[in-house]
Amino acid sequence: MIYFFYVLAGVVSGIFGGLGMGGGTLLIPILTIFLNFDQKLAQGINLISFLVMALFSLYIHHKNGYIATKHIFYIIIPGVLFSVLGAFLMSLTSSKILKIIFGVFLIILSIVEFIKVFKKDNRKEKGAKKR
């Protein structure tokens, strides 16, 4: 039965990742809260699943001609360097601290998204009043 929940977590995070929300936003809490995974293990699983989705997305975007390769190394080199630095810092940090940091990140993300929704609604209302 536990394998069903593993597959369900993968499907849910894959769907939301494909929609652009970011599967890790759901995958990490599902793994840590409901399936009792350690925070570091959950983040590692998220990175592996992200890598698979990113490679597939890269293939699709390349196939559709959406990848500009002119300045690609200005993004790749710092991205790789800071990923390695982040992984090193994570290895030095306890799982409890990582949970707190991730929780604060999710709270900030939700506040930003709520602000975006209300700003969008206000712009619609102002546009309707002008007519």
Helix and strand element order? HHHHH
Number of structural units classed as domains: 1
Work out the radius of gyration: 19 Å
Residues in helices, as a percent range:
over 70%
Assign an overall shape.
globular
Largest sheet: none
| First and last CA, distance | 58 Å
Q: Number of helical segments?
A: 5
| Total strand segments | 0
Low-confidence stretches: none
Integer average pLDDT: 85
Q: Strand content of the residues, in percent? A: under 5%
The SS-based structural class is mainly alpha
Description:
With about 130 residues, the chain is mainly α. It has one domain (about 1-130). It is about 85% helix and about 0% strand. It contains five helices and no strands. Helix 1 (about 1-20) packs antiparallel against helix 2 (about 25-35) and helix 2 (about 25-35) packs antiparallel against helix 3 (about 40-65). The longest helix has about 35 residues, at about 95-130. The N and C termini lie far apart (about 60 Å). The model has no long low-confidence stretch (mean pLDDT about 85).
